[in-house]
Write a structure and sequence with these properties.
Two copies of one chain form a homodimer. Chain A is an alpha+beta fold and 219 residues long. Helices cover 46% and strands 14% of the residues of chain A. At the A-B interface, helix 1, helix 2, strand 1, helix 6 and helix 7 of A face helix 1, helix 2, strand 1, helix 6 and helix 7 of B.
């Protein structure tokens, strides 16, 4: 892997507003994208996310008006909605987290105890989250941007386009997913969507960014 | 770039808790890491972040007790603190955003107008952020996890270790950076740190994750 390969992927990636609906991402490529989402880091390793891949056209048609009619939604090869975990499952000492540390993270019992204590301290002392499910949910929501970034970067490394989407009515999309897909809104909320596919045309404008001097400060 | 190269980087990356203090990242490699942070996407492309690279040992010593004495901080080759933008600069129609769209994004005046209107709509109707600087700040904070993920992934692609750090007292670190580095807390808050370097030893445990079936749902 050369630096040039990496930077070329960043030059390639842009918020692709319209995909070629005829050109589909191979199952193998899309599995690689999902896999880098799955392997992304998160605070405490609690992976507070769930990825819904929306391929059903009828469901996409229902999402479209909730998302300002953005044409990435019908034209994407694959459309991912990322849910973030919320509610009592993320409260320190919850059955869910204890089981997660034991079964998924395979931690020995003394480490489960130690991490539970540190997580409680973290919630109470550092983030002042104790007893405030809305703020715990906000902390979990931030984590979901890690797999989002990684999945878009993986796509770009594979020559696949993407578009991150936050422009939708969150409450309406949550209600739709509860109704149509049985999403439990006590446990999950919608954070963002990302559309993947192949661009229908070249980007309308060149990528702009603040200069390194404006963004980075050495101390 | 093969899928194997990408997935190998994800297998390599782990939350490295202690770095070899003798082994420094080359300037060229670290510039590449920073560059992928700089080129990361953000909502509206507003790049609501700033990267502080903390190389001063005296400053790191002052950060250490605020961050639970985590030994990544003194041993890291490079330590990045990410600030997120907040306050009135992010309110729709602010002078900062108008100048950003004109000068950084180089948008023609009619697009500046259109985007300003959509951003105002987005804040008011979709995220219900209007007039609530705390919630605008939370939205900006989420964006900073995109460059964080990308920078750690770039490091891993280059064979460089990293550790994301949220475990610190935010208020104390902000006060320290205001005092020692002149950070304007009306405009920036601290979100997270990431330590970069080369591992002192192999990871204590194997990477665990929920299975694909637990994480992904196709609809």
């Amino acid at each position: 892997m050369t630096k040039q390969d990496i930077l070329a992927a960043y030059a390639f990636r842009h918020a692709c507003k319209a995909f070629n609906p005829e050109k589909k991402i191979s199952a193998d490529d899309f599995d690689t994208i999902l896999e880098t989402g799955r392997l992304s880091p998160s605070s405490f390793g609690f992976e507070p996310w769930q990825f819904l891949v929306i391929q059903d056209e009828v469901l996409r048609d229902k999402i479209l008006p909730i998302a300002c009619g953005q044409k990435q939604i019908p034209t994407a090869s694959h459309l991912v909605i990322t849910l973030s975990r919320r509610g009592e499952t993320l409260v320190a000492g919850s059955d869910y987290l204890l089981r997660f540390m034991r079964e998924t993270q395979q931690l020995p019992e003394e480490v489960v105890k130690m991490r539970s204590d540190f997580y409680a301290f973290f919630q109470k002392e550092l983030f002042k989250l104790e007893g405030d499910e809305a703020r715990i949910a906000a902390w979990a929501a931030r984590q979901t941007y890690l797999p989002m970034a990684n999945m878009m970067t993986t796509a770009a490394l594979l020559g696949i386009d993407s578009c991150p989407i936050e422009g939708f009515n969150k409450a309406e999309l949550e209600a739709l997913l509860a109704k149509e897909a049985g999403v439990d809104l006590n446990t999950f909320g919608v954070e963002h969507m990302t559309a993947y596919g192949y661009r229908a045309g070249e980007p309308a404008r060149v990528k702009t960014r603040r200069t390194t001097e404006e963004v980075v400060r050495w101390l």
